[in-house]
Specification:
Blueprint (H helix, E strand, L loop, with lengths): L2 H11 L1 H9 L1 H8 L3 H9 L2 H8 L19
Helix pairs in contact: 1-2, 2-3, 4-5
Length: 73
Amino acid sequence: MSNLLNYLNLLDTDSAARAAHATDPKAAMTQFGLSDAEHASVLSGDRAAIGKLAGVDLADGQAGQTSCEGDVR
């Protein structure tokens, strides 16, 4: 599993991680060890870019939804 996918799963399951990300996303992602490209994809909200870096195939019907603005930023 990719580090980015692990981070996204953590945000989904850990309220403290979500709070840290909401307060300072760059610091939270850096502390978790995400790369600059992973930072940029999460901050952009571009689901296709996030999926590509996370190794997730979005061809299961979600590919048309390319923005996750407000989801994790």
